[in-house]
Specification:
Elements: H1 2-5, H2 9-19, H3 21-27, H4 29-43, E1 51-54, H5 56-68, E2 72-75, H6 93-99, E3 100-101
Helix pairs in contact: 4-5, 5-6
Amino acid sequence: FGEVFTPIIHQLLNGMSFIESNSLDEVALYKQTTELVRYLQATGNYAKIHITGQSLGGGISLITGAQTKIPAIAISGPNNKLSRKTFDPIFSLDDTKQFLFN
């Protein structure tokens, strides 16, 4: 079935994200971690910030790292190359290559 779904996978993910957007906002932990990192960056008290996580926490760290442009490492984190356009703000494939390691 890969030949059927591969061309439309991004549209499916965007559609599911739109339908569930209100519910997702309530459990979007990445928004809290991204806000925390932005706060730490704004204070100017930290020369380097890195973020790590494992499994679901790894996925959250990858999203936060890409959105805030800081290095992030995930151990067994979910793949975010397909879902990267469903987050707010979205991040580019180049951001995943430059700042993330999974």
